[in-house]
Specification:
Blueprint lengths: L9 E2 L3 E12 L7 E9 L5 H21 L4 H6 L7 E5 L6 E12 L1 E3 L6 E3 L3 E3 L17 E10 L10 E12 L48
Parallel strand pairs: 5-10, 8-10
Antiparallel strand pairs: 1-9, 2-3, 2-9, 3-5, 4-5, 6-7, 9-10
Length: 224
């Protein structure tokens, strides 16, 4: 049996992360666990139209093959594409397009090798803005800005999603980190003003700590 050709690894445009599960797999609906992230990008950003076109072509090719192998017209109709790994974002209140596109990337966290019968686990590789691997624990929250390394993989048609494709997550580059609960000053309506500017002193303590005691442990600055 001929070996399937290796699919190219692609890089997404830079965008904002939504519901990132990149350090701990989600096991709520899948016992094997799944890493995932949604990427929100402006529809007119460089590379977005090309990625949409690639997804559409993979889904169309998958549907064409499924229909060719269908026993009859009724079975062929079951394979019509019902899902794509992207969606045009709509305003929650008005239902009008926002001008953004949402791409979903996923990675299966564990399984059993069909070749060896041995269990395996994996997780996405994480890199900082300079391209250095992130080895320590880091919380990656919604609103983080970054890029995704991935492959476009066609789905075997099912009655649930039809003939389609998925964006198989491989690695993530963190450009601007937002941790859980973090908000920027602009999110609170603050702009830049002249005046007091916060800095850490030489021994790393907060200037607010004074002589009243040490700052809570574990609140060290994460450097990339």
């Amino acid at each position: 049996m001929a070996k399937a050709p290796q699919r190219p690894t692609l890089n997404s445009p830079k965008g904002a992360f939504k519901f990132p599960k990149l350090t701990t797999p989600d096991t709520k609906f899948k016992a094997e666990g799944e890493y995932s992230v949604k990427l929100i990008v402006a529809s007119d950003a460089p590379g977005v139209a090309d990625l949409i076109s690639k997804c559409d072509k993979e889904a169309a090719d998958s549907l064409k093959e499924a229909k060719a192998n269908a026993k009859n017209a009724a079975e062929a109709k079951k394979w019509e594409t019902k899902y794509l790994p992207y969606a045009h974002v709509e305003d929650d209140e008005t239902g009008e397009p926002t001008g953004d596109v949402e791409f979903k990337f996923t990675m299966k966290a564990s399984g059993v090798s069909k070749k060896t019968g041995k269990p395996w686990t994996r997780k996405p590789a994480l890199f900082d803005a300079k391209g250095k691997p992130i080895k320590g624990e880091v919380e990656i929250g919604g609103g983080t800005i970054g890029k995704i390394s991935f492959q476009i993989i066609p789905y075997a048609p099912t009655t649930t999603v039809g003939a389609s494709c998925k964006l198989a997550l491989e690695a993530v580059q963190i450009i601007e980190l937002r941790q859980f609960g973090d908000k920027s000053a602009s999110a609170y309506g603050f702009g830049e003003e002249d005046g007091y500017e916060y800095t850490k002193d030489e021994d790393g303590e907060s200037p607010f700590s004074g002589d009243e005691g040490e700052a809570p442990a574990g609140e060290e600055e994460v450097e990339f």
